[in-house]
Amino acid sequence: STRKESSAASDVYKRQAEICINAKKIKEGNTDIREGKDFHFIECSRMEDIKNAMAVQYVKDVDKYGLGNVFCLCPYIEHVAGVNDMNKCLQDLINPLKENEKHVLAGSLDFRIGDIVMHQKRNTELASNGDLGVITDIIWDDEEYAIIVSMNGRELSYDKDNIQYLTLAYAMSIHKSQLSLIHISEPTRLL
Length: 191
Hints:
By secondary structure, the chain is an alpha+beta fold. Helices cover 31% and strands 25% of the residues. The strands form 3 sheets. Strands 7-6-5-4-8 form a 5-stranded antiparallel sheet. Strands 9-1-10 form a 3-stranded parallel sheet. Strands 2-3 form a two-stranded antiparallel sheet. It is globular. Residues 1-16 and 183-187 have low confidence and may be disordered.
């Protein structure tokens, strides 16, 4: 029975993991990269074109598979088409700021209800580095705020004292994605 289950798991891996096979080839310097169900080339000559192509594909995939089932992975944090740039771009496409909508400006980030976010840097009893969640509410009381995030089956609160541990997660670095609880299943899309 164990051998049969192992063989079935291996067959699933072979059918669904062209991206893993190609990643291994790239790491080894092998240029025999092949497109497949989960791996496609989009030819671009400028970083701005790459950013736009990723944004168009992200929106299409979110429409098809749903928000939370599509992740944009970037090799860089800064620069055009890096994590920070893509998060702002994708947030504006998927969850644009509406007039009179509650939101929180924290440094360079603008948190909105419905945003996909990630806990980062510091583990707590309730959240670990790389945990993903969704902003479900923003509560303002005079100059104080609380961002309510559904994460790990709980409602967590972020305010001015711990907001530095929260970031947008429409896009994330390849490194950070390895820490995240991305549930890889048939509809999950990695860009």
